[in-house]
Amino acid sequence: MAETSEEVAVLVQRVVKDITNAFRRNPHIDEIGLIPCPEARYNRSPIVLVENKLGVESWCVKFLLPYVHNKLLLYRTRKQWLNKDELIDVTCTLLLLNPDFTTAWNVRKELILSGTLSPIKDLHLGKLALTKFPKSPETWIHRRWVLQQLSQETSLPSSVAKGNLGTVPAERTQRILQEEMEVCGEAAGRYPSNYNAWSHRIWVLQNVAKLDLKILLDELSSTKHWASMHVSDHSGFHYRQFLLKSLISQTAMDTSALQQNSLKDEPKDEEAAASTEEPRIDLTQLLEEEVEFCTDLIDSYPGHETLWCHRRHIFYLQHHLSGRCPLNLTHLSPADCSGGTLNDLHLIPASPQLSQAMEVDGLNDSSKQGYSQETKRLKRTPAPDSLGLEMEHRFIDQVLSTCRNVEQARYANAYRKWLVTLSQ
Amino acid sequence: MKLYSLSVLYKGDPKAVLLKAAYDVSSFSFFQRSSVQEFMTFTSQLIVERSTKGSRASVKEQEYLCHVYVRSDSLAGVVIADSEYPSRVAFTLLEKVLDEFSKQVDRIDWPVGSPDTIQYTALDGHLSRYQNPREADPMSKVQAELDETKIILHNTMESLLERGEKLDDLVSKSEVLGTQSKAFYKTARKQNSCCAIM
Predict the structure, then answer these.
(1) How many CB atoms sit inside 10 A of residue A360's CB?
(2) pTM value?
């Protein structure tokens, strides 16, 4: 069925209108999807709205996408004007079909800056795009820009606070935070080891929540069940490692800040006094609980390398704590994310130490164990306590004697070798 | 860690007969769900047809693992799970379900049964409960009597097929799959290459 360019234009305009109307009719649309449908049914719109799900029949995409894509580029190159509403509709359609089209996001940035487009609406579009494209890098990157805008716009009190003392995140921040955690959680569920989603989650904790201790603790407990049901999700477990590392570093900062404050002879007002009653965090206990959690999962689900990697990280954090050596924050960075940094992180230096700490990793070839970087750092630190090592060796023995899973045995042996290198 | 489908079939000659099935497609995008469900039916039948009586196997296809148990009396069960779900629990579940089914449904009904005629309602409950393997099967930490080495492992569906048989052909000829599902299969095949916008 050959379409003339006029027919295509008419069709596309109709489809774009249908999409806009669908959103107007149902503001609660929470998911988009493509419906495999090779041929159009006579005179029926390819836009399908069922419950709160918006579907696009696949036959129309080959007409729709190039047309709106071209339309936006003509606007961008100043060959054809589009008014604000047209821009919103066109970019919306485009991004629901291909959210990695950076230009469309950039047009929306301009609309936000000129006050035509509400940042919240824009975040909603991103959330929808992520239901179909949970990894989309451009969507996550753009999202961070919008969140930055929001925080500048309202100049949230948390951005002025010194450290985490006396910070009670404003209600709006809390809502934004909740929403971001939800969006990340959903995206993580839609694609295994969704690095982009989890990295975004980390960024939000660093830049929106400012690594608030209570929030870190909440996240640790609220993601526990998810982790236990996704035992090969390396990014999910890496998130827990980040939480624990941050709890360690933030507690240390609090302690030193507290010490500094007590040196000054300032009268403490009510708020400051109350804030010193920060949640008492027993780091040793938290780490022990994490080891127990890890052990439990290793026993229940043999043969998942992620769990063994997680164990190494926790062990490292534990002996690091007990070693009582001065905290070197580069060790505590999420630098073991292979694949490099979030390119846009430099836009907002969160706390100075953390932004420096995002090293680009992964340029070395990964060793068989993949921990050469960590091992080199570990060799510089004091030897781990022998009791901890002994317990780990006993655990390995127990696993090896009872497991029948070939991979489990391999990971257990690799872990033993790694432990041995620590004490060399 | 997810279970997507649990089915009971009869390994007839030459076709496998679906007797009862339970599905959980909630984790798939809304518009894919009916196609995914049809595919799981198609896959379950195909696997049972290509497995011998008295065997257990795990067939890997992309990120899914299909666990099949065909009893020597031709009663068969298939569990389709993701790759995290512990296979030992999957086989425990299959054993349990087939045992229960054979006690509740007369053998004479097996060769000619269908989901509409078969009186067995426990499947949905089992599927739902076993979504959390530790809750459903707390003893799974203890070594099961089942010898894991007797489970045949297939790395692809293709390895189940006869020489010259193509999965694409079986899909297009299938009566179980609707046109939308077949279209879905075609685009999914294409998607395995990068840069697909659809």
Answers:
(1) 11
(2) 0.83
